[in-house]
Amino acid sequence: MLTRVYVGPCYSPMMEFTCNLCGQPNRSANRELDRETPSCSSCGSNVRTRGLLQAFSRELFGANLTLPDFPRVKSLRGIGTSDSSQYADRLASKLDYRNTFHDREPRFDIADPGNDHSGKYDFLLSSEVFEHVVPPAAAAFQNAFQVLKPTGFLVFTVPYSLELSMAEHFPDLHEFGLARLGGRVHLINRTREGAVQVFDNLVFHKDGSGTALEMREFSETSLKQLLTAAGFESVRIYSDDYPPFGIVHSESCSLPIAARRAPFAWGVEAAREVVEQYRDIKRKHDGEMQRLCGKFWFRMGHRLGLL
Questions:
Q1: Chain centroid to CA 262: how far?
Q2: What are 188-199's pLDDT values in tens digits?
Q3: Residues 6+ apart with CB under 8 A from 64
Q4: What pTM does this model have?
Q5: Could you identify which of 12, 65, 68, 292 might form a hypothetical disulfide with 23, taking C-beta atoms 3.0 to 4.6 angstroms apart as the criterion?
Q6: Residue 108: left if φ>0, alpha if ψ -120 to 50, beta else—which one?
Q7: What is the mean pLDDT of residues 103-118?
């Protein structure tokens, strides 16, 4: 919904939207809705996190639902990789979902997940992680494929370009560490062949615990190739704007991506949970309607077509 608010000698376009993470109504100038700037007045979500959750809702339920409106389906199991607290706790209250971290408990390393996670999850959520995983990047996507159930899916975001190929910054990374030399941070690496490499001009991204080293810059083409090579049957890039949730993309890259092992299918237990919730809500609705029908003004309004 687009409205105009008088701010002086001219009118400034404002957009009204509902944050799909917390359900808060918002009003924001279009120019504020870039990928990383917080634009929800309640939880601080940005276009990236709202886009990620919209893609997740579409992949799981086939509809654009806010997180507060998700049905509670504890038989659907998923895992997150350093997900934002803006949605992690809320998601855990709805689904059998656990957020994990690379550097603290509960630990999970997408570069080396271990056999305990194999074929265990209906979904995997990841935002701004795969660009920081040690090379080769292909191994991380293969691991993502392996931890999912046969009908599971991955929804993720990473920064990526529209170039033809991926830029791998440290392709021979083996034994390495960071060192501060002359007031700058350098990466020192010993390759498998024993050669010593020194890299400067490093790029760090802010994350929940501080900063994370950028290992590569993906391209859209390389991401599709990596996901297909890992075994994913379909790959979808969520490029469309969705103003009702404040999702207005300021660029044509670094968009939410969904990759499926196979067409998603709800299990019997998950379907039962949703049906039971619908039944309970319908009972409450029918009971409330029966109560209201005993009210004179409600009956009169219904007869006059006002209700």
A1: 19
A2: 999 999 999 999
A3: 20, 54, 57, 58, 242, 244, 245
A4: 0.83
A5: 68
A6: beta
A7: 93
> CB-based burial of residue 111 (10 Å sphere; 0-12 exposed, 13-18 middle, 19+ buried)?
middle
DSSP β-bridge partners for residue 175: 190
* Residue 3: exposure state from Cβ atoms within 10 A (0-12, 13-18, ≥19): exposed
Q: CA–CA separation, 202 vs 169, rounded Å?
A: 9
Handedness of CA 280, 285, 290, 292 (dihedral sign): positive
For the chain, the first-to-last Cα distance in angstroms comes to 25
Amino acid at 249: H
Q: How far is CA 219 from the centre of its chain?
A: 19
DSSP for 229-290 reads HHT-SEEEE--S-BGGGTB--SSSSS--EEEESS-----HHHHHHHHHHHHHHHHHHHHHHH
In the prediction, which pLDDT does 303 show?
A: 62
56-85 per-position pLDDT tens digit: 999 999 999 999 999 999 999 999 999 999
By the 8 A CB rule, do 216 and 223 touch?
no
Rounded CA-CA distance 188/183 in Å is: 15
Residue ranges per domain, the chain?
2-169+214-265
Check: CB of residue 110 under 8 Å from CB of residue 126: yes
User: Within a 10 A sphere around the Cβ of 96, how many other Cβ atoms?
Assistant: 14
Burial bucket for residue 77 (CB in 10 Å: 0-12, 13-18, 19+): middle
* Cβ count near 250 (within 10 Å): 14
Tens of pLDDT, residues 7-64: 334 444 678 999 999 999 998 776 568 899 999 999 999 999 999 999 999 999 999 9
